[in-house]
Design a protein that fits this description.
Structural class: alpha+beta
Largest sheet: 8 strands, mixed
Number of domains: 2
Order of helices and strands: EHHEEEHEHEEHHEHEHEEEHEHEEHH
Radius of gyration: 22 Å
Distance between the termini: 34 Å
CATH class of the largest domain: Alpha Beta
CATH architecture of the largest domain: 3-Layer(aba) Sandwich
CATH topology of the largest domain: Aminopeptidase
C-alpha cells in the first residue's frame, strides 16, 4: 500500500465529504439522504464503504452494497460494487487497487460470497482487480410507443436540425414497424387479473421456485419483504409502478417500471413464467403507458440467460430493437463452485440489478 495514504471504513462524519467528492467528479447532485437510504436504511450492519485519505482529505471511495441473491436455491449475501472513485490527481498509482482490496477484505469478513457490478472500466477490473468481465451479455431493448410524444421529444431536444430530421425518420420507421408487429402479438387468454400489490409476499418465493424448476441453475435476486420495501415500495428517488399478474391465486408474471422523466418507461424487472402470461401483461403495460403519452419503453437484460432471452424474444416480436449496454463483472470471494458462479448463462440479470441511487 502507499505508505502515506490512510485506508479505512467510512465514518458518519465523512458522508458529506463523500457526497461532495462524488458530485465534483461526476458533476452530479447526489445527496447525503440518497447515500444513507442506499447503504444504511435496510441492511445497516452489512454494507461496506471504504475511503482513502491523503492528509485527511478523501481521494478515493469504494462502496459494496449488500444484496441477497439466490444460487442453487440458497439465499446468499453478496455485494454490488458501487461508488468506485479516484481523484484524477492520483491516477497512475496503486491507491485504487489498494482501496479495493481493502474493501474486498471487509466484504469477506461480513460474509459476502462474491461481488458483481456494471462498469466501463473493463481493463482495470479484469487486469488489476481479477474480475471476470462479460462484455457481450447485457443489452438494451427499446421501442417507440406514443408517436406524438416521441416526435415532441425530438423537436424539443438539443440536437441540431439535421440530427432531429434523421432521428425523426428513424423513430417514424420504428413506430410503424413496431405497431405492425404488435398487431400480431395478442393474448389468447382472459383468465388473468392484474394487481398493484402481491396477494401474499410468499407468492414471489413460490413464483421463483417454479422458475427454478424450469431453469435449475438460475441465479436471481431474493425479493423478500425487506428488499421490496427498500428498492421498490419505499424508494425515495425512483417511483415504481408495480403490476402483478395472477391466474387465480397463482402469480404468473410481474413488472416494476418507472417513467419519471415522462419520456421513457424503464421496465426494471419484467418476468413471466410462460409466454402467454408475458403477452397479457405486456399488453396491459403498453396500453396504460400509451394513455400516459410515454414516448419510449426500454428494457435491459442478460441475453445469455435463457429466461431473459425468452423476454427478449417477446419484446422483439413486439417491435423492440436492441443496442449494447455496459459490461457485467463478477469476482468470487468464498463461493465454492466457481464454474457455476462464473457461467454468465446462469445469471438472471435485468434492470433491477443495474440501479443504484438513480437509473
Amino acid at each position: 500500500m502507499n505508505v502515506n495514504i490512510e485506508y479505512r471504513e467510512v465514518k458518519t462524519s465523512d458522508i458529506e465529504e463523500v457526497i461532495s467528492f462524488h458530485n465534483r467528479l461526476y458533476n452530479d447532485k447526489r445527496t447525503s439522504e440518497q447515500w444513507l437510504w442506499e447503504y444504511k436504511s435496510e441492511y445497516p450492519d452489512n454494507y461496506v464503504f471504504t475511503v482513502a485519505l491523503d492528509e485527511n482529505r478523501i481521494i478515493s471511495t469504494q462502496g459494496m452494497l449488500p444484496i441477497i441473491t439466490v444460487l442453487k436455491g440458497k439465499n446468499l449475501l453478496c455485494s454490488k460494487s458501487e461508488n468506485s472513485l479516484l481523484d484524477t490527481d492520483y491516477r497512475g498509482k496503486t491507491i485504487f487497487h489498494d482501496l479495493y482490496e481493502y474493501a474486498m477484505d471487509k466484504c469477506e469478513k461480513k460474509g459476502m460470497r462474491f461481488v458483481f457490478g456494471l462498469t466501463t472500466a473493463v481493463k482495470v477490473m479484469e487486469k488489476k482487480l481479477g474480475f471476470h468481465v462479460y462484455v457481450d451479455a447485457m443489452y438494451k431493448l427499446t421501442t417507440s410507443l406514443n408517436f406524438g410524444a416521441a416526435q415532441r421529444d425530438i423537436f424539443y431536444s438539443k440536437r441540431n436540425i439535421f440530427k432531429k430530421i434523421v432521428k425523426s425518420m428513424l423513430v417514424s420507421y420504428q413506430h410503424i414497424t413496431s405497431s405492425f408487429k404488435r398487431r400480431n402479438i395478442k393474448s389468447k387468454s382472459d383468465n388473468y387479473s392484474v394487481k398493484q400489490k402481491l396477494i401474499d409476499i410468499k407468492d414471489m418465493d413460490i413464483f421463483y421456485k417454479h422458475l427454478r424448476d424450469q431453469y435449475p441453475n438460475l441465479i436471481h435476486l431474493y425479493q423478500d419483504e425487506i428488499f421490496m420495501r427498500w428498492r421498490i415500495h419505499n424508494n425515495p428517488f425512483i417511483e415504481y409502478k408495480t403490476y402483478f399478474l395472477y391466474q387465480g391465486e397463482r402469480l404468473k408474471a410481474y413488472c416494476y417500471f418507472n417513467s419519471q422523466d415522462r419520456i421513457t418507461a424503464y421496465l426494471s424487472d419484467f418476468t413471466f413464467e410462460d409466454t402467454e402470461a408475458g403477452i397479457f401483461l405486456l399488453e396491459k403495460i403498453m396500453t396504460d403507458l400509451c394513455k400516459e403519452k410515454i414516448a419510449y419503453i426500454s428494457f435491459v437484460g442478460n441475453v445469455k440467460n435463457d429466461l431473459i432471452n425468452k423476454t427478449f424474444k417477446l419484446l422483439k416480436k413486439s417491435g423492440f430493437t436492441s443496442s449494447g449496454f455496459m459490461p457485467f463483472i463478477i469476482r468470487n470471494i468464498s463461493f465454492e463452485d466457481e464454474d457455476y458462479l462464473y457461467d454468465i448463462n446462469n445469471w438472471y440479470i435485468n434492470g433491477l440489478w443495474t440501479e443504484g441511487t438513480t437509473i
